[in-house]
TrEMBL record, chains A, B, C, D, E, F:
Signal peptide: none
The protein's name in its UniProt record: Nickel insertion protein
InterPro entries: Ni_insertion
UniProt superkingdom: Bacteria
Protein's organism: Paenibacillus aestuarii
Keywords for this protein: Lyase, Nickel
Taxonomic path: Bacteria, Bacillati, Bacillota, Bacilli, Bacillales
EC number: 4.99.1.12
Pfam families membership: Ni_insertion
Keyword Signal in record: no
Listed transmembrane segments: none
Length: 159, 159, 159, 159, 159, 159
């Protein structure tokens, strides 16, 4: 069963925004990342860096549609300690994505699949669902992952 | 008291220069960073990376005005071991900056403030001054920072 | 088919040896790691660190039987640039290990399995074999891994 | 108002447990960390490392009371992919801790304070509470932190 | 003796391709890097990052001629677990390169030299050759490097 | 000319002290490292780590004689934000060290040499001196290093 399909495409209107932080409480980072995702960031990640005078710093990276530049800047300037933000133009090539359900001993679970030129190249169990099953059924998370992957592969063989 | 004011602006003529270093004495890094700052780099930072054959390397990054590309290249080629430099075009959005003096038990100290669309969004004690006070008065650096920040906040409330 | 079995055990005579390197050509690291493994190190790994004056450094770590301390020191002092080595006492709890062969479309391949208190808790395809199959049959490495894991799981279900 | 007080003390029965992971899905890390905390770990953290053949790995670290070694091992062996765990003996010096409430524009909030030889040396707003206030009142998290810290400092001056 | 010479030049048709990996077996990384080099990548390196939910991830970076974008994408989509690749335009300034042979106690060995505006700015012994000599003659690798560098410097003085 | 000689020895009374910092301004790190060195630390270094809730943290490490534990704790508790310090016992094997002067085009410069069982295994130009020469004579730092190393090697050959 497939209940979602996005076409493979290239988006040329993306920005990578970066801010170097060397004087910010690292405790705030996950809060800020969540807020940027909430406001529409496609991806947010932090790169550990070494800044001037050997300071251990963090480079905040935000991948976002060019149209949302202002919104992201508002969050970064208000929530971090940076005095400047730089951004560069980027293109994103995204695979077609499909969510499929596979049977497992704990009921049907979702697999996210990626297609390149019509061919299945990626598949991954949905983390949130597997985590929930692992907690509920007291089974190691890796066992849940293995079982979902095995069942997805079986299903592919039959189809 | 305010004794400096730079307007908020966007600079579209910036470059991010990068050189991957996998065969250089890491001891030289801070010297090279200082030299790049001296010659006009806006920012310099190092990213720990893993290069081919699993070598732990360093990616040197220089943020600089496009007009200074040649000067930066001269430093990087003469001081590091790289055989190539790559660069990408970037825009920088910089806040309006203001330096204010606040009273503290150890005399007046400077706070650097940042303004986004006319609104105060950042403020930070000047590291060098606080470091000097901490050494001179034998007081923890974090206590100096806290005191400067508290006094800046009090002053803002009154104004 | 099982052709090897080591008992689960705890070894209390292990050392963790550490040397901080801030002035060594990183290009030499993999050579040095290989040499330490050749001389009997149980594990060797490198931790990126920040040393005095903000130098990006590497902490070399060697896990080894206490009886081989001298041999490891000879390699580290002769091959790296350190002037000192520190070491701490450690215990190692190692799982029982078993190598099993599973059938795959590319012939039988090896899985390394780990047992804790008699129960299977780990299994992993042998990297070298999978890498060879991936190259020889022009198939993605991850596909080889998935297939080996799937077949191992099937076999477990039947037994 | 103080509603909790733990004495400053040294605990000599601690272990630092370590497992190097070079073949595990990094997606599972936070789940595993949470589980170790749930079972009584004092601290859990991950160190990015470079392992043999230049593999980017993670060293899982667990700080725990020696009496809980077995419980931690059960989690690590069942949830990660490691075939071995090493551990070293450690002592922990912990400050006296006190939770105090301070008034803020958003109501009373908690500050965790640390005392060394009877003297206040640390204080920090409780992250969870500040995060909640920031979301509820649509105010930057750093503003909440600053306000809590300022009020705690004021209160200290008066007492 | 010089047996190769490439002119110093700037190449404006380069791409930096990036894929963030937070759910991939790190064991596969060196295999994938090798494959990208085989298919024509100019450079490949991995940056340790922190992704959403605090996951330790890896950012794969590929520097490549714009004309090889499709080939690189095929490798990345088939061999990694990413659902998207981003790329940015970059220019590369590459030094003139020359390979010279110098006499050493173990026979002639190669030095790679780099020239900026006609002036020698870099020179480095060839790793593979030095590694082989170190193994064959049971001499520390750093001694081989030092000897090659010393002989190259002597030769430069005389010429 | 040799003007200093320390014997090769093993010191079994060392401690490795560690404090995890996830809520401290990284700007303070180098100040704190300097202070610990001033008070007698043998080595101080920082390891980038990932802490609970995916926070990017720093693990401060201090290598110090067991007799100075209290002094180091005073600095760490007063200058950082940690509520606890852990420490483990370690042994340090230190090479015999010798400082030698070698002639260079810029006058005599110092080389630090290390001896293992009476045999020269390490030598390194003194950073501070080379840095000063590089600045004064406007010559790349790496050229100064190369020249010092070459002259030291020549001298060794003759003696």
């Amino acid at each position: 069963m497939s209940f979602n399909h996005r076409e493979e495409h290239i988006d040329d209107q993306m920005l990578i925004m970066q801010a170097n932080l060397d004087d910010m409480n690292p405790e705030w980072v996950s809060y800020i990342m969540d807020k940027l995702f909430d406001r529409g960031a496609n991806d947010v990640y932090v790169v550990p860096i070494i800044m001037k005078k050997g300071r251990p710093g963090m480079m905040l990276n935000v991948l976002v549609d060019a149209g949302r530049l202002g919104e992201m800047e508002d969050v970064i300037f208000s929530e971090t300690t940076t005095l400047g933000i730089r951004y560069i133009h980027a293109s994103c090539h995204r695979l077609a994505r499909d969510f499929e359900r596979v049977d497992t001993p704990w009921g049907p679970l979702t697999v996210k699949a990626g297609y390149h030129q019509g061919k299945l190249v990626q598949f991954a169990p949905e983390f949130k669902e597997c985590e929930q099953i692992a907690k509920q059924h007291q089974v190691p998370l890796k066992v849940v992952y293995d079982e979902v992957r095995r069942n997805f592969m079986e299903k592919q063989k039959l189809s």
